[in-house]
Specification:
Largest sheet: 4 strands, antiparallel
Number of helices: 5
Shape: globular
Keywords: ATP-binding, Nucleotide-binding, Transferase, Ubl conjugation pathway
GO cellular component, one term: UBC13-MMS2 complex
Radius of gyration: 16 Å
Strand order of the largest sheet: 1-2-3-4
Family: Belongs to the ubiquitin-conjugating enzyme family.
InterPro entries: Ub_conjugating_enzyme, UBC, UBQ-conjugating_AS, UBQ-conjugating_enzyme/RWD
Helix content: 25-40%
Oligomer: single chain
Strand content: 5-15%
Order of helices and strands: HEEEEHHHH
Protein name: UBC core domain-containing protein
Distance between the termini: 25 Å
Structural class: alpha+beta
Length: 167
């Protein structure tokens, strides 16, 4: 962690001490600008019960530029493409140095709760979402079952929740 800007150290420390419910973000042992992220599918969403792996990287000029974030776990979502790239305004033109890693993770979690087919990255998924939302939601649930049910990752989030409740 030596040699990192104070801002990154403080944000990392806060993420570790006060984790966001349903989200685990741990810096890589070899590169503290690279985070291994796990996001639980929000309750009431087609992604509920799923555990999604993401990677988050802080570029050299962070916080002047947004973190680079992408899904590693496959997901059926109009705002996330096959490569895991995310269409989210704060990761692009609405980024502000006032935002933090925590804000980004919460926004991604919110995007899972409220897909926006009017601003798609995966056009085929967005089209189905608009034409036949029930079928799109069924597809999202199927993909969640197929690709996002890693029990090891669930364990990490459960341990985190248990330690939260003890503090």
């Amino acid at each position: 962690m030596a040699g990192l800007p104070k801002r990154i150290l403080k944000e990392t420390q806060r993420l570790m001490q006060e984790p966001v419910p349903g989200i685990s973000a741990v810096p890589d042992e070899d590169n503290a600008r690279y985070f291994h992220v796990i996001v639980a599918g929000p309750e009431g969403s087609p992604f509920e019960g799923g555990i999604f792996r993401l990677e988050l990287f802080l570029p050299e000029d962070y916080p002047m530029s947004a973190p680079k974030v992408r899904f590693i776990t496959k997901i059926y979502h109009p705002n996330i493409d096959k490569l895991g790239r995310i269409c989210l305004d704060i990761l692009k033109d609405k980024w502000s140095p006032a935002l933090q890693i925590r804000t980004v993770l919460l926004s991604i979690q919110a995007l899972l709760s409220a897909p926006n087919p009017d601003d798609p990255l995966a056009n085929d998924v967005a089209e189905l979402w608009k034409i036949n939302e029930a079928q799109a939601i069924a597809n999202a649930r199927d993909w969640t079952r197929l690709y996002a049910s890693d029990s090891h990752d669930k364990l990490i989030l459960q341990e985190q929740a248990a330690s939260d409740s003890r503090h």
